[in-house]
Every structure is written in structure tokens, then in C-alpha cells.
Amino acid sequence: MRYLITSALPYIHGIPHLGNFVGSIFPADVMARFLRMKGEEVLFICGSDMHGSPLEVAAFKAGRDVKEMAYENHKKIKKLMEDWLVSVDYWGHTDSEENKEITYEIFKKLDERGYIKEEEVVMPRCNNCGRVLADRWIEGTCPYCGGLARGDQCDDCGAILTPDQLINPRCVYCGSFDIEFKPIKQLVFDLPALEDELKKFYEERKHLWPEYVKKTTEWYLYKEGLKPRSISRYLNFGFPVPKEGFEDQVLYVWFDAPIGYIGITYQWAKEIGDPEAWKEWWKMPLASDVFYVQYMGKDNVFFHAIFFPAMLIGSNDWKLVDVIAATQYLTAKGVKFSKSRGVGLNLETAKELLPVEYWRYVLAALFPAHKDTEFSWDVLVEKINKELVDNISNFIYRTLSLSHRKGIDLNTPLGEEEEREIQKVRDFARRIEEAYMEFLGFNKVVSLVNQLASEGNAWLNRREPWKEEDPSRTLVVALYYVKVIALALYPILPLTMKRVLDLLGVSLSWDEVDQIRVSKVERPFKLFKRIEEAEVEKWRERFSPEEKKPSVSIDVVLNAKMMTGVVRHVQEIGGDEERWLLIIEGPDGKTYRAAPPIKKKYSPEDLKGRAILFVPLEEGVKLSGVEVNAAVPLAGDSIVVADRNVIGKVR
Q1: What separation in angstroms does the CA of 378 have from each of 205, 401, 540, 541, 542?
Q2: What pLDDT does 553 receive?
């Protein structure tokens, strides 16, 4: 069996944050490393998702050329993956000629077989700026959870949406709420026509899939039912639709992005000098011995369990996924990390605070396999100081120091007590392997390794080798503990654990867990160091939203022009019990964001649709971790209700 591993391709519109990384790229890397250590043939493919409205929105806001920004960010993120020790076999991108070739091949086959149809699709058009608003060019309130939603998906609950489902939609170009829905000719993918084949595909694999993935897939296949899905967009950057009459549109990003897994493999094949090698991983029957695992966050399940498989089934002869390893969210004080909203640490900032292996350990320990898991500074300190340093690192250094100093006989015969302890370690090794082969069990691995280190420390404390005349038998067993711990943690901490294995003369092979002996013991080094509270306090001040103080002075409010605007939407601010985020439509047609401390007095229903006084700010500021560009003056703890007929009047 050969293993093909792909990670959801990170959108190129911003730097991935810890939530992005732990939800897709990190587990794919850890799994690829473990399988290679087991001697398996592995191809790990990932790259940059170059197309789609998120990038165009980011380029628009930055005043940048979209293609130039895409390639600049691609290089930056590729370098970041190297910094974060991602062992990808090839980091490509979806704007390549190789991906275009395969995307067009799949499109044309689907079209020839009648799965692509022309339909009038109701799309939003902004009456203020005249633009057709595809996907992330329109945002509003999610009809399911009340969170921030875009034209194709909700950021908070992951619901797959169409623009006409949004509550209080607004144009991202100009901020106007003057949105009209009109029928526009587009191409749609006829998903219902492939329903029977998709059900067969699912039923054959569901025993391998996590519960959340099964529930989500069954919802679409057996409850809600499949609907045709639009696959063309009015955007500037992407693959032009290869069909007469639609040349002014590009293919939907979720059409060419998953095909990017194949396109990037094609890029890899050319890079290694064998342009046909990609077919051995993707074309049936050549790929019949491939076991394919996809890693992604839970918000991508629809596209990987329904949309992409339907494209491959409809165009025939492609290798289909075996395991969809979808993770839950890593949250920060109950708020999902989001590039769109600037919540959470990104990979650039995080590696400035700590070496990446510290982060990799914490992310593995908190790995959100089956439920959302909360990150906090307190948790970070606990995982590093108590687990990584005081337990694991301390045991390894303690054992190696004693063994090196005592000059023990590594081939000394062992007695019954030592053999029983050896069997205990072997049992742990089996359980660790089983956790890895769940494909999402990385937090279990960390937990088992901590138990193993604790058992190892207990063994040393019980036998007290520092008092023994010949501590060889005690320390040979302790060194076996160290060997198994280092092998188990190598996929997570590859640099440090490889150094430990080198000190012992142990090869990087999982087969070593069955071999008790090591060949040498060299002078050890301190593996990791504790994080000091003073350092953590600096991070709290810099990053924690609750520590941020308003930077709007009273002089700004008193001397500014007050306007009257209408509250169009009210949103929660994660972790803030005092403030609502108000989305206000101003008299100039622009959208303003304010975060007054009125949560305890007003409900969203009290505020929506009200005309209130507000002060536009020349420069945006952060309140409770969100960007605002307006201040709402209060009379005590009350808003100032305004007359809609005095819009824009100076105080």
C-alpha cells in the first residue's frame, strides 16, 4: 500500500494562523512523518490556493494587483511552511498551467456527459457600485447561527450558503446595503444527477470516517438532499470558463482548488523529471494500491465529501479519497481563529515568540480531533512547563546524564523485573501506534508519551540507580523508555527528537520500538526550557483582546462631527461580556463599525433598525480585538436615539 496525503490548501489572502495550521497542514505533516518512519511509501502534497474572492477582497482593500499579491504571498507562505518544519514533498499552487490543464480536462468531461448545465442563478448586485457580488464580495448575518457569513459559507458554524440566504447583506466593495438579487446566466454542476454514485462512494468508506464527517455527509445525502451548485463567477483572477458564452466568467474556486491536489502532484512529477508519475497516484487502475487521506477543518467537509468526489466520479477513472480526516476548531477564548477577522496568532507572529517545536507540541497536545478545543496562554504554559519540560525533557535528560556519567554496560543481561518493565514500554508503543493510525489521534499520542515519561521517572525513583554499584540493568530499561519516547514524538518534534536518537545511535525507524538496546550514549543536552511568567505577561498585553484598552480620547468625540446612522446588524464579540459590535449604515452610504459597552442594557432586537448618533473615526482602532471605525457617544449607559430626518447634521 502507498499513502497519498493532502492538506486543505491555505487561502493565499493572508498568513495562516494557528487554527488553520492545526486543522490541516500540521496533522498531515505529522501523519506523513509517522508513516515514513514506519517504512511506508508516502506522497504528501499541499500548496497555495491562489484563486477566489477572499484574495480579491484582500487585494482590493490593500490597493494591490491581485495576481502580484497572490504570488508574493505564495512565496511567503511556502517559506513559512519550511520554518514550521512541514515535510511536504511538494508545495505548489493552483494557478499553474498543470492545474489548468487537469481542471479543463475534468470540466470538459463533465460537460460532455451532461453534468454541467446553463441556468439562471439569482445573484446579488450592488445598486450603489453596480457590481455583481460573488462569494466574499457580499457578507451579512448567517440565517442559522447569527454569525458573520459570506456569500458561500458562514465563518462561525460552517454552513454552506447562497448569497440570498444572508440576513442584512452588504456590499464589501462600497459598504452599501442597497443589494438587489437578479437572475444571471451561470453554469451549474448537477450534483443531484450523481446522488446514487455518491451514496455508494460514501457507504463503502464511512467506517473509516470520523463521526462529524459522517453526520455532515449524511445530512446532505439523506436529509437535505443535493442541489445544483454554481461553478462560474464574475471575478478577475482565475481560470476562464472554457465554454462559449461564458468567457467573461472564471471557474468557481471550489472547482479548481481541490483539483489542485492533482495539479500540484503533476507539478511535482515534472519537478522530479518524470512528467507521467502523477498518474500513478491519481489515475485508476494505476492508483489502485494507493490509500488516500485528506486533512481539513470541519468547515470544508461538504466540498471534500460531496463536491470534489462528485467531480471525480462524473469524469471517471480517478482515485477517490479513503479517509476524510476533518478536525474541529481550535478556539481562543471561545472564538474561532479567523484570518478574515484578524483573530488569533498567525504563524509569522507565533514563531517570533517561541521556537516552532514548542508550538508543535502544544498544538498536538490540544489537537481538536473530535471537539472544539480552547487555546489560552495558561494552557500554553501548562503544556510546555509541566509536560514538555518538567516531565518529558526532564526524564530524557536525567536518564542520558546518568547513563553517560556512569559508563554503563549497554549489553548487560536483564532480569525478570526488568523484562516486565520492558513489556510495559512495548505495550505503550503499541497503543501509541494505534493512536497515530486513527489519523486524528495526535492528542492521544501526547497523552501516552506523558504517561510513559511518568512511568520512566517512577522506575528511576524506585530503583535509584545513582545509589547502585552497577546501575546498568536499571538504566538500560530507562534508555528503552527514552528510545520509545523519542520515536513517538519524532513526527511532532522532528529536530529535537532526531538529536536524541542520534545520541543513542538509534535509526529513524518505528521498527526500533521492538529493539530494547541502544548502541551508545553520548553527552546529552537540555531539550527545552521553561517559559517565565514575565514573558507570558508581555504576550497577554500584546495579544489578549480583553487587555486592549480603547484608544479613542474624549476630545475626539467632543470635537467631531456627529452623524445619524441606522444599526443594521449586531454581533457578538468573542470573550467580551460588555460590548456589542454594531454595524451601522451611515448617511454617506458607507458602513461603520462601533463597539460600545451596552451589552448588559440592550439586546440585539433593541438595537437593530434604530437610528443612533455616532462619530466616524479618521483612523480605525481595536476594541476587544475587533477593528472599529466609529464611536457611539453614551448618555450614562444609554445610546442616543436620533431622528432619522436629521441624518448627517452637525451637533
Answers
A1: 40, 31, 10, 14, 15
A2: 40
